[in-house]
């Protein structure tokens, strides 16, 4: 629970450090609404009254109990979510959707609900439903938290009533999806990917000699063959990918090539997120990082996940290319 805070990339972000695009009014509107949401949390306890009480259970919220930031990748949704977390009073928790499902797995559902129910605010980044089990789990979890008076804020690339589409038979779990949707006030954040405004594709891959030269004698930079890395990731639980790259100042991957296996691709998505969280530059030989996923994968149900990963890896590759 203590580790569930914004990652290093977002340690010091604020609403003031977010730069809304003047051509996208929804960005400034989202900042204003989130400031108000944070101020409301500061004026009231978890029960919605001034102050807090240990003797009275919070009533069920009559309307949406959370904020849901919907928009494409690269519009600054995680920045805004982290800024809200920093401004809001505690106790509070910030984690990705995957991290929170892993928390439930580690503690058990009942203890996880008990611990999270002590929070005024729970922030959930990258809210995505990949399977029916996650749908039922999160519907039940959020319902319990709302009943306890916890406020929730989340980000996603998919509207809450469309979660799960293209990934499983979402119509069979419509009740749970609608229950999730009812908890949130949706804020649309429009715009282009700020990481690549005015830029084109990822940097060209390095030659093998240049890649080894980039690593040099720096023992804070790693060097791995791409296929070996993929094999190793399969043996490590995705919840530990963050620990895998802690203390790493640069990652070199030799022989990168497009992947078509969805399981491998989804592991690489998690790794890309953890590298981006920690601002770890990535240099490669073989194919460029924006060629990592095949066209078939990019046309499938996880398309938005893959595009987010490509956007973040491209930014990290540009960082590695800087002198």
TrEMBL record:
Keyword rRNA-binding recorded:
no
By its UniProt entry, which SUPFAM superfamilies does this protein fall under?
P-loop containing nucleoside triphosphate hydrolases (SSF52540)
What PANTHER family does this protein's entry cite?
A: AFG1-LIKE ATPASE (PTHR12169:SF6), ATPASE N2B (PTHR12169)
Q: Where is this region: Disordered?
A: 1-25
Protein's name in the database: Cell division protein ZapE
Q: Which InterPro entries match?
A: ATPase_AFG1-like, P-loop_NTPase
Which GO terms of type biological process are on file? cell division
Entry annotated with the keyword Cell division? yes
Quick one: which gene encodes this?
A: zapE
Annotated signal peptide: none
Q: Which UniProt keywords apply?
A: ATP-binding, Cell cycle, Cell division, Nucleotide-binding
């Amino acid at each position: 629970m203590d580790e569930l805070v914004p990652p290093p990339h977002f340690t010091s972000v604020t609403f003031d450090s977010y730069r809304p695009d003047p051509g996208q009014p929804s960005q400034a509107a989202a900042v204003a609404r989130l400031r108000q949401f944070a101020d409301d949390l500061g004026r009231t306890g978890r029960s919605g009254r001034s102050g807090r009480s240990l003797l009275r259970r919070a009533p069920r919220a009559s309307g949406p109990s959370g904020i849901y930031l919907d928009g494409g990748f690269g519009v600054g949704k995680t920045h805004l979510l982290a800024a809200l977390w920093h401004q809001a009073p505690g106790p509070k928790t910030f984690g990705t959707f995957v991290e929170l499902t892993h928390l439930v797995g580690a503690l058990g559902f009942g203890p996880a609900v008990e611990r999270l129910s002590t929070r005024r605010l729970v922030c959930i980044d990258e809210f995505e439903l990949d399977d029916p089990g996650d749908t039922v789990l999160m519907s039940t979890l959020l319902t319990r938290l709302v009943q306890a008076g916890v406020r929730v804020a989340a980000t996603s690339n998919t509207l809450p009533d469309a979660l799960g589409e293209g990934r499983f038979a979402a119509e069979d779990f419509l009740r749970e999806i609608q229950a999730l949707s009812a908890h949130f006030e949706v804020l649309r954040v429009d715009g282009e990917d700020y990481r690549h405004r005015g830029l084109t594709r990822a940097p060209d891959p390095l030659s093998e000699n240049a890649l080894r030269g980039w690593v040099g004698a720096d023992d804070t930079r790693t060097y791995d063959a791409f296929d070996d890395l993929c094999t190793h990731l399969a043996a490590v639980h995705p919840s530990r990918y963050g620990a895998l790259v802690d203390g790493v100042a640069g990652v070199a991957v030799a022989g990168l090539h497009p992947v078509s296996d969805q399981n491998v691709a989804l592991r690489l998505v998690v790794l890309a997120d953890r590298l981006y969280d920690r601002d770890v530059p990535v240099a490669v030989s073989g194919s460029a990082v924006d060629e990592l996923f095949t066209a078939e994968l990019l046309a499938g149900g996880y398309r938005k996940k893959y595009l987010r990963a490509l956007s973040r890896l491209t930014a990290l590759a540009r960082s590695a290319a800087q002198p």
